[in-house]
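W.,

You were right to be curious about this one. When I first looked at the sequence I had no strong expectations either way, so I just let the prediction run and decided to look at it fresh. Below is the sequence, 281 residues in total, followed by the output.
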Amino acid sequence: MSDTLRILHLSDTHLYGDGRLHYGLVDTLAALDRVLARAATLESIDLVVASGDLSDDGSQESYRLLADRLEPWASERDARVVYAMGNHDIAAGFEQVLGARETVTDLDGFRIVTVDSVVPGAGYGRVDAAQLERLRSVLAEPSARGTILVLHHPPVPPTTGLFETLRLVDPDALIDLCTATDVRLVLAGHYHHALVTEAGPRRIPVVVAPAVANTTDVLWTPERERAVRGSGFAVVQVPVAGPVRAHVVSAPAPDDGQTVYDLSPADIRRIADASGWTGRA
């Protein structure tokens, strides 16, 4: 049994079952293959975490494509795979191929818990009272080496304006629960850019993985929202004792940096009106 849990954390693969290109430009399956080829240079991995928006069309075929890539890759390394739901995922296809939307996995004394933060039909996320109660029950008994929580919507503020109304709504109750239990790390996606920060008075590390599909330009003018070609992943080390370490790694391609979309303020408002949080359930 190793004294450190080594995690390959990837997110936002946005696969299509019929091979369509994301935004008519990006071959997301090829991007995933490139990410896995880059990650294959890692010395060892114990756990693969895929933190949501795994599909863009919600089809069973898209989830089979993902599983057909991740499961053999992990098996060759004696690693486990954990999947979480994202707002582009559809429960029926996800469950048919990948299994339950909320899971508990025990691995070498670490406990990995997935939470479904999806609000059907919305881009924002929420963890409701019933889910919090289930999670409280799961975490009532501490795990030997602590718990890692996985969900799609990060429980920390967004960096860019598009995600302001697409954020996790009311994250404080979840953070309070994590603070009161043995949660040592939160893994999330959704923002399409890497972010390593902390949450709550216990300063629980939060690692947001970069997307496989494209990369949010966090330095773009605040009034607009831009994404560029580019894929990456995070490598996270969780020791038995001591601080969590996270490294963000790119999987380069010749067309990296080319614009995928550049949204105007009006575009952002339309997205917010269609799927953003309005302050009402």
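Here's what jumped out at me. The first strand starts at residue 4 and ends at 10. And, maybe more interesting for your project: The first helix runs from residue 28 to 39.

Coffee later to discuss?

I.
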